[in-house]
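Fold sample X.
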Amino acid sequence: MIALSLAEIAAVVGGQTHDIPDPSAEVTGPVVRDSREVGPGTLFAAFAGERVDGHDFARQVVEAGAVAVLASRPVGVPAIVVEDVQSALGALARHVVRRLGATLVALTGSAGKTSTKDLIAQVLQRKAPTVWTPGSLNNEIGLPLTALSATEETRFLVLEMGARGIGHIRYLADLTPPKIGLVLNVGSAHIGEFGGREQIAQAKGELVEALPEDGTAVLNADDPLVRAMVSRTKAKVILFGESDEADVRAENVRLTDSGQPAFLLRTPSGASEVTMRLYGEHHVSNALAAAAVAHELGMSAEEIATALSEAGSLSRWRMEVTERPDGVTIVNDAYNANPESMRAALRALAAMGRGRRTWAVLGKMAELGDEALAEHDAVGRLAVRLNVGKLVAVGGREASWLQLGAYNEGSWGEESVHVSDAQAAVDLLRSELRPGDVVLVKASRSVGLESVAQALVETGAEGEVSAR
């Protein structure tokens, strides 16, 4: 964080200082909420959760080097006491962002946010110091914590914004006002909470409404609900996609033999070939979004193409590919799942598995509401249409819908199986995998199927282990 005295921070957040011998003492490190991340110069934000109360760690974090605690009550060590720690954190982030002078890039969408954010960060890093959201910390706490990790040297701040309802993105954009706002797509993620795609579009479009007139909205030309957001902003608009009308577009899209996308990137400043290290054709749209942002910030087509071709995944369990010594390939995409990302992952599996036996180990897609049965059935059917070798549906009711969809798509009953839990899936795969097989593991985060992928990777390296 930019250096601020405790007195300054207290004034910004409207807090009272307690047990602070020197109000001029400065916070020079980041703001953290995990006591394990505390170091010299940090400010510790104490949140009271259902199981753990950060206030209980106050003395421990100060002994570890924290300058003070941002707390909702006095804690017997240097503290700035506020009515609400989350609101105070947001106020501090807003103050720091205004002081920074960095260009703030915000992005949202139903699918691909984290992968695209990682691509943007890796491209912009080549131009100037860049700070970005770690993993998927894109909510009312994670976003300000990311903003507060920026320093005086930061020139680009890339923030992922998530939403579970109308008004969420408006709130986040008010905390950290963006200069560039990117909307990737409007899909079915959280449709059970929103009530429909139109409501999701309404929520995602709050980002472009927050842009200043001298800002830039980067919109997906291939998604009608996103493209319609042009009318909701006074900012400049750049379109990306495979459409001929896109300002930044992909031509001659293809997949390598290993399932990695390649294409000709065309921008208003030129064209250059891209061959990505990531897996799956869905990353083309993510790459174009990143390219549009980079173009707007002055990078040439050649610079962007080179950066995209060398970029990797910065976040765990997102098409994370491991080649076992015995020739089995494990694709761990178990961080989360929705209908759009599930279809993209299955298509990537089909491309990677050309000439090889493929396995789709799939679980529940959460928060689909009344669409849950139809969407799980459709994913099961798609696995058959893509000639996936075997579907292993893991879990309860939703998994049975996946398996039933595959069964009803054709005479494929013996090639789909429903198992009760992760350990059952691991046991099945251990007994049936053979060299050359490709295994995709994917489900919503709550299912925890990453344990299946991890167990299979460890089995290949060290012998049999159990799924946790």
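Fold sample Y, listed below.
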Amino acid sequence: MSNQDWQGKRVTVAGLGVSGIPAAKVLHGLGAVVTVVNDGDDERSRTQAAELEAQGITVRLGDGATLPESTELIVTTPGWKPDKPLFTAAAEAGVPVWGDVELAWRLRGLDGREPAPWLAVTGTNGKTTTVRMLASILEAAGLRTAAVGNIGVSLLDAVLGDEKYDVLAVELSSYQLHWAPSLRAHSAAVLNLAPDHLDWHGSMEAYAADKGRIYEGNRIACVYNAQERATEDLVREADVEEGCRAIGFTLATPGPSQLGVVDGILVDRAFVANRQKQAQELAEVTDVNPSAPHNIANALAAAALARAFGVGPAAVRDGLRAFRPDPHRIEHVADIAGVAYIDDSKATNTHAAEASLAAYDPIVWIAGGLAKGAAFGELVTGAAGRLRGVVLIGRDRALIREALARHAPEVPVVDLDRTDTGAMSEAVREATRLARPGDTVLMAPACASMDMFVNYNKRGEAFADAVRALAESD
């Protein structure tokens, strides 16, 4: 779309916040007549509304259900569920609904510059780490790039800003993909699939279908997890451009058109001259920080996307060596009296916790929080043989306690009947009491944090603070 196409176009932005406000400002700047609707009418919303209204944007607080008259397009923030009355009204009126990602995609090249290709990543877990690894690899190759999207950096800023990029590393959530019908990436990866956000999508099938949208129209490579058939199925179902290849990644020895691991080396049998007989060494497992199995998988996915873009093996190695993970992702906090303390507060669902638990043995596990409808039987069954003990915190801890009673009855369990933030200090003390030299105290809650903390970052900080206080008193 050209600038002229936006002049006078009546656009409704659904929701304030990190994506709604930038979208409203961009659309207003293009000449659209913008109305923002928002369910909330609290002090923060009123402050945000006042800022937008000062620029000439109409804001309706406390009314996110009614479709403004003469609306030609809705641009929604990712958190708004598809069953909202606003979207029902839009469907009945024939009004299209775009997300912030779709808007950014449509606005590429608006300034006349050649748009940067997108290397896109989604999955239930590991998205942010993989995208940041990918950006590190691309930078090591001398490319101008940025990690953007669901990672917290606005795609609109990347697309419309003054910075000129060669390629973008784009993290996309299932919410964003649901509202991005015309997205066509250079190459894309689905890291894994496990039940999550089913209250938003309505079913696992709908959730998987939205994840699979990332493959639609891919030009060069659809990267999938060769150890999870569900991700390969999404590739098979995708409508891609002629010549686009399916590229698997695996923690095992790779087959042709795959990346994998051989004797502690990350190897490529996909982007080589003879896939049947050749393998290109990319990096050592020890170049990946941390070298937990699921993080090796993230590194392989990032390497596959970079290789699809033509990046050489030396840049893959150098980029992985330079990468440092974000806090609260299997982060080593301290060693005290022979016990390692690991903060994986980002493990907010069972799939993430399963990967974290698989990386250590023996474990004293700190778990619990908001279960979001999850079941824990399979998780406990898989980890039972590695558990020295368990300390439970949070509102839905009883669900994990019941799973432990059924599937790991011999494992000692401490159930902390408190949900105040001070519970974390007690949890660390109890975990220390259960641990022996050589053990790992692992805080991988398998639950969301909002029953006790503002977010998983604050939960991780509370754990780290408690561990450091323990070290100082030791």
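Sample Y note: The CA atoms of residues 223 and 304 lie 7 Å apart.
Also: The first strand starts at residue 10 and ends at 14.
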